[in-house]
Amino acid sequence: MILKVNFNNWNLDLFPTIIILILVPLTLYFSFWLFITGIIGAKRMLNSRKWNHTIGKIIKTEILFKKFGGGDSSVSFKFVLLKTYSYTVKNKEYESNQTFASDSLYQKEFKSIDKFPNRYANLKQSGNYIEIEKEQKNAVGKPITVYYNPINPQKACLNNTFNKEILLPVFMGLLFGSGLTFLVYYFLKPIFR
């Protein structure tokens, strides 16, 4: 079967056409990226439940933040403590900074507290930030349980449970991706006749 394209059936003006040709592929890419990274993250978390454990030590900490919202009135921040820890497996020392086995997929979304915008300085007094700051004070040198991949001990995490938050990008990616795919099909169907 040969697919025939007939642009005479295209009824949309220039502006909607530009939106469809530029924004829709970018949004589809982002939607499927969310879906795929969510699936990979969930798989990593499930696999980490079978990993071996050892005692490690926190060697460095850093407070990171992530901004939510766009305008000044609706902006909020999430603060996390990035713990770098060392651990030994079969007389070889390793380092990692993952709390969950999926953290490496989303680390670029967080920035160092040094880059925190000054205009939001009052938000550093939030309960989340104060709690993280307290945790940071006594963390270095503290012994911790480290879960590591017995096949590849370089891969490790501090928490080998399944974090249900990983399902959010899966569902968002699936919802937006399938919705946009249907819209693209709906708008492009007339020219493929």
Word description of this protein:
The protein is an alpha+beta fold and 193 residues long. It folds into two domains: 1-49 and 163-193; 51-160, no CATH class. It has helices at residues 14-48, 127-137, 167-188, and strands at residues 52-68, 76-89, 92-96, 111-112, 143-148, 156-157. Strands 1, 2, 3, 4, 5 and 6 form a six-stranded antiparallel β-sheet that branches. Strand 2 and strand 3 form a beta hairpin. The longest helix has 35 residues, at 14-48. The model has no long low-confidence stretch (mean pLDDT 86).
- Tell me, rounded to a whole number, the average pLDDT: 86
Strand content: 15-25%
Shape: flat
Number of domains: 2
Low-confidence stretches: none
- H/E element string? HEEEEHEEH
Distance between the termini: 12 Å
How large, in whole angstroms, is the Cα Rg? 23 Å
Number of strands: 6
Give a short overview.
The protein has 193 residues and is α+β, with helices and mostly antiparallel strands.
Summarize the topology.
Layout: H1 14-48, E1 52-68, E2 76-89, E3 92-96, E4 111-112, H2 127-137, E5 143-148, E6 156-157, H3 167-188
Antiparallel strand pairs: 1-2, 1-4, 1-5, 2-3, 5-6
Features of the shown structure:
193 residues; 2 domains; alpha+beta; six-stranded antiparallel sheet
